[in-house]
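Write out the bound-state structure for zinc ion.
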Amino acid sequence: MKTFPSLPKSVEIVEVCPRDGFQSVKEFIPTETKIAIIDELAGTGIKTMEVTSFVSPKAIPQMADAAEVMAAFRAKWKGRVTSVALIPNLRGAEGALAAEADWMNFVVSASEDHNMANTKRTVEESLAEMEKVAGLRGSTKLRVSVATAFACPFAGPVDPGKVLRVVDRALEAGADGITLADTIGTADPKYLAATLSVIREKYGDYPFTLHLHDTYGMALANMLTALGMGFASFDAAAGGLGGCPFAPGAAGNAATEDMVNMAEQMGVDTGIDLLKVLAAVRKMQSAYGLKIASHLASTKKGLEGNCPS
Ligand code: COA
Ligand code: ZN
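---
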């Protein structure tokens, strides 16, 4: 008899709304509004948050206040919620180090086309820069995010060999964590599992984080597939906000509240207070006018519709 796959007892959910979510909002969100939303999200039980990114303000104007946002975050949450700052280059690393982020998240794509669109560098140039960043990180930890690990908005399906290339270099450089990103959110569960199988075969139980977008509505299905394969760390964005401005067609991330709801319903502990996330998301919508794209925050049923498992 075929049974439901066994799932991890708990998962880590990393809140990326303040970076991936906000970067996709065209109109500048005032710094104090960002900080107010971040404070609410930080109080939901989340352990790690990607707070901002140190990137060129010409590329992403929304992140121009990175230093201020990180300073406010550290003043309130240091030691309680781990802070992450995304960086695309050495200059970004300098910003993240000066701001004393707990982690830097260096982004490099598996596909040449997206890496060029996103960072104006070849993959090799970005990898060489990542190695330099690894050398100057001090006590700040280094995560490497492999963007377009499954599909590229320009080149289509990405050969897993290209993902292995980036992961190998990240591990050789001594990265403290690695994230595999479905940047454009077009992977289906079977396709995702094929790449993850190649990853598992090569790196065993290494605790990768997965970053899933919901463009085709398959982010939760992809999460479940990965959970069944033993992956237990996921990025998510409150309200389902998000999308890389240099990945045409990408929709938002898997919503934190939808992920937490599914996981907790199945007995997988997240440590996150779902009602607090929902309250924060409703406020993002009603007080700050942000466009929400999550199932749970959109249904009138709220949590009453959940089946007892
Ligand atoms: N933070 C702030 N400013 C930066 C910066 C950083 N990390 N990196 C470069 N800059 C500034 C430079 O000082 C320069 O400013 P100037 O024109 O006033 O002299 C300008 O940006 C261009 O610098 P350059 O090194 O030539 O960068 P670029 O134009 O080749 O752009 C990136 C490359 C990586 C900086 C830019 O494409 C970028 O920030 N991309 C962000 C990608 C991203 O966040 N994507 C979404 C998440 S995956
Ligand atoms: Zn993303």
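---
The two ends are 20 Å apart (CA to CA).
The longest strand covers residues 103-109.
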